[in-house]
């Protein structure tokens, strides 16, 4: 019996001190939480959030970690989490503010603004300590880095290690944050009178501000005398739009089809295969002729299409034009898939390690292109560790750089949440431009992110477990839950109405934006199960980086002003 007590509650002489006992408890919390994360009720799961609740239970029964080790693991887990997110979203962070992404991210700014107004209204009306409300707000939007930012800001402001009420408020509001967004989506469906079939059809066509971040492939028959006999390069210059003509079929040339180059002449009656954004499809067809249904598979014996993975570091940051595939190999790059988003293969587009490019050409030409690009998963299986530790090092430096904001008495610091996150975004975006390979496989990056997130959640649960039950049973705990409900529901409902009636966003895209704004993967899964399109996922990934950035910075500034 004594051994069991030491096993769960620790003893200074047991297993060489408190470290081994702490790791034992941490691993047990993670195992229980991850096992419960597989449980679904009506297709909805709280996912790894169960780790938080497992930690709360263990903490309630006084199964604690060594205090110093607990604080280190919490901060280290959070740094790993935010840095891996920043590194993943960095390459597309600034691109998300162009085209349709500008509108979607503008809606995110509105929703976050409504959330700030709601939070401040609760603060001024009720007089609840702002540190507590900061924790409730971070839980209500299921944003773990925002919790870390609030804790860091409070520590810098009052020169204390931590304020337990911040983490307790987060723990109380977190379940409401997960389920509240899903409930708001169901309400919006009926309030907005959504025709799900019509919305699904619109999503397939790429409407609803996804036009700039999705690609369509279609065939066009040339029947415009104005471009008869004109080279492709001249047509590109005239249209001033990003599109790619990958193949051309000439019926008078013995049913022959060929690759397209800049000097390829377009003749009346030719059929071309075009890759372009959905909103560019109509003007392209209007200029060139008419859209037709054409079976390109009948020519599979002469030209093939293959997706090739870029795994050679020397190609990192090179543009498609620099590769000179058309002139040297007789092959075309028709599209580039980066982090799940398809990009038009324009000559100036810079390639990155990990990009998946679609190459069209003869069997021999495509094979040569494959050798140039690498296409070796083995090369990518070796992780690039230098950017990870270099970025964390620079992030920690940036985290402690003070800067002054008028009206705030204390200097503001980004902390261990904002510093690594911003550095990771910058390295992910600028790394390829300066030949710094920042790519890691999706599985490796996901492993780093999930390990950090899980450790952080477990530590938060263990740290607040002692007071959690008493808080829930008290009047103040129930009030905190109500505050979390308001902070979750009001911005999502108003944001959904604004997005639909003011910006006319496709419903599935809108739901993805709302899930991304609250950094809520369970809500995204809920929408994804109700649509065969990926418009919700694209909306989510488009706004997620900016939403994360806004949540971290705004809550940190608010803590400095009002706490």
Automatic annotation (TrEMBL):
<feature type="transmembrane region" description="Helical">
    <location>
        <begin position="385"/>
        <end position="405"/>
    </location>
</feature>
<dbReference type="GO" id="GO:0006813">
    <property type="term" value="P:potassium ion transport"/>
</dbReference>
<dbReference type="InterPro" id="IPR036721">
    <property type="entry name" value="RCK_C_sf"/>
</dbReference>
<dbReference type="Pfam" id="PF02080">
    <property type="entry name" value="TrkA_C"/>
</dbReference>
<feature type="transmembrane region" description="Helical">
    <location>
        <begin position="543"/>
        <end position="562"/>
    </location>
</feature>
<feature type="transmembrane region" description="Helical">
    <location>
        <begin position="451"/>
        <end position="472"/>
    </location>
</feature>
<feature type="transmembrane region" description="Helical">
    <location>
        <begin position="411"/>
        <end position="430"/>
    </location>
</feature>
<keyword id="KW-0813">Transport</keyword>
<keyword id="KW-0812">Transmembrane</keyword>
<protein>
    <submittedName>
        <fullName>Putative transporter</fullName>
    </submittedName>
</protein>
<feature type="transmembrane region" description="Helical">
    <location>
        <begin position="478"/>
        <end position="498"/>
    </location>
</feature>
<feature type="transmembrane region" description="Helical">
    <location>
        <begin position="172"/>
        <end position="192"/>
    </location>
</feature>
<dbReference type="GO" id="GO:0008324">
    <property type="term" value="F:monoatomic cation transmembrane transporter activity"/>
</dbReference>
<feature type="transmembrane region" description="Helical">
    <location>
        <begin position="43"/>
        <end position="63"/>
    </location>
</feature>
<dbReference type="InterPro" id="IPR006037">
    <property type="entry name" value="RCK_C"/>
</dbReference>
<feature type="domain" description="RCK C-terminal">
    <location>
        <begin position="201"/>
        <end position="290"/>
    </location>
</feature>
<feature type="transmembrane region" description="Helical">
    <location>
        <begin position="69"/>
        <end position="91"/>
    </location>
</feature>
<feature type="transmembrane region" description="Helical">
    <location>
        <begin position="505"/>
        <end position="523"/>
    </location>
</feature>
<dbReference type="GO" id="GO:0005886">
    <property type="term" value="C:plasma membrane"/>
</dbReference>
<dbReference type="InterPro" id="IPR006512">
    <property type="entry name" value="YidE_YbjL"/>
</dbReference>
<dbReference type="InterPro" id="IPR050144">
    <property type="entry name" value="AAE_transporter"/>
</dbReference>
<feature type="transmembrane region" description="Helical">
    <location>
        <begin position="103"/>
        <end position="125"/>
    </location>
</feature>
<feature type="transmembrane region" description="Helical">
    <location>
        <begin position="14"/>
        <end position="36"/>
    </location>
</feature>
<keyword id="KW-0472">Membrane</keyword>
<keyword id="KW-1133">Transmembrane helix</keyword>
<dbReference type="Pfam" id="PF06826">
    <property type="entry name" value="Asp-Al_Ex"/>
</dbReference>
<feature type="domain" description="RCK C-terminal">
    <location>
        <begin position="291"/>
        <end position="375"/>
    </location>
</feature>
<comment type="similarity">
    <text>Belongs to the AAE transporter (TC 2.A.81) family.</text>
</comment>
<keyword id="KW-1003">Cell membrane</keyword>
């Amino acid at each position: 019996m004594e051994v069991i007590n030491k096993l769960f509650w620790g003893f200074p002489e047991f297993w060489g001190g408190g470290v081994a006992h702490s790791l034992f408890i941490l691993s047990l919390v993670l195992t229980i939480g991850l096992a419960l994360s597989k449980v679904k009720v009506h297709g909805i799961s709280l996912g790894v959030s169960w780790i938080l609740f497992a930690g709360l239970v263990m903490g309630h029964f006084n199964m604690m970690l060594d205090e110093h080790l607990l604080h280190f693991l919490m901060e280290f887990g959070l740094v790993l989490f935010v840095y891996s997110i920043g590194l993943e979203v960095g390459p597309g962070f600034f691109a998300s503010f162009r085209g349709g992404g500008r509108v979607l991210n503008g809606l995110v700014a509105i929703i976050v603004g409504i959330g700030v107004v709601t939070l401040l209204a609760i603060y001024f009306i009720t007089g609840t300590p702002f540190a507590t409300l900061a924790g409730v707000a971070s839980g209500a939007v299921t944003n773990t880095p925002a919790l870390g930012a609030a804790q860091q800001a409070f520590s810098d402001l009052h020169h204390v290690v931590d304020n337990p009420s911040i983490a307790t408020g987060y723990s109380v509001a977190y379940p409401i944050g997960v389920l509240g967004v899903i409930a708001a989506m169901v309400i919006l469906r009926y309030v907005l009178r959504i025709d799900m079939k019509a919305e699904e059809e619109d999503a397939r066509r790429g409407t609803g501000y996804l036009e700039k971040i999705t690609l369509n492939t279609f065939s066009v028959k040339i029947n415009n005398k104005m471009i008869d006999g004109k080279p492709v390069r001249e047509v590109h210059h005239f249209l001033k739009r990003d599109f790619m003509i990958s193949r051309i079929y000439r019926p008078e040339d013995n049913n022959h089809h060929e690759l397209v180059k800049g000097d390829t002449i377009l003749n009346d009656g030719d059929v071309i295969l075009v890759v372009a954004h959905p909103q560019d499809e109509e003007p392209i067809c209007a200029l060139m002729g008419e859209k037709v249904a054409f079976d390109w598979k009948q020519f599979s014996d002469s030209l093939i299409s293959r997706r090739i993975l870029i795994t050679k570091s020397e190609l990192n940051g090179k543009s498609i034009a620099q590769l000179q595939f058309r002139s040297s190999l007789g092959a075309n790059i028709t599209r580039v898939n980066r982090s799940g988003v398809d990009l038009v293969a324009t000559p100036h587009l810079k390639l990155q390690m990990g990009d998946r490019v679609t190459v069209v050409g003869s069997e021999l030409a495509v094979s040569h292109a494959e050798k140039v690009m690498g296409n070796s998963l083995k090369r990518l299986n070796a992780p690039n560790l230098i950017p990870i530790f270099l970025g964390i090092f620079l992030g920690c430096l940036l985290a402690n750089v003070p800067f002054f904001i008028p009206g705030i008495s204390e200097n503001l610091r980004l902390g261990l949440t904002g510093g690594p996150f911003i550095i990771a975004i910058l390295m992910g975006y600028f790394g390829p431009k300066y030949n710094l390979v920042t790519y890691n496989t999706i599985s490796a990056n996901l492993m780093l992110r999930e390990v950090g997130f899980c450790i952080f959640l477990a530590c938060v649960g263990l740290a607040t477990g002692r007071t959690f039950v008493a808080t829930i049973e008290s009047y103040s705990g129930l009030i905190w839950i109500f505050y979390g409900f308001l902070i979750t529901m009001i911005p999502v409902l108003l944001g959904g109405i604004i997005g639909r009636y003011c910006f006319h966003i496709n419903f599935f895209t809108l739901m993805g934006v709302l899930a991304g704004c609250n950094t809520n993967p369970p809500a995204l899964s809920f929408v994804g199960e109700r649509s065969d399109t990926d418009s919700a996922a694209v909306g989510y990934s488009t706004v997620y980086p900016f939403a994360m950035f806004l949540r971290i910075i705004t809550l940190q500034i608010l803590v400095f002003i009002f706490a």
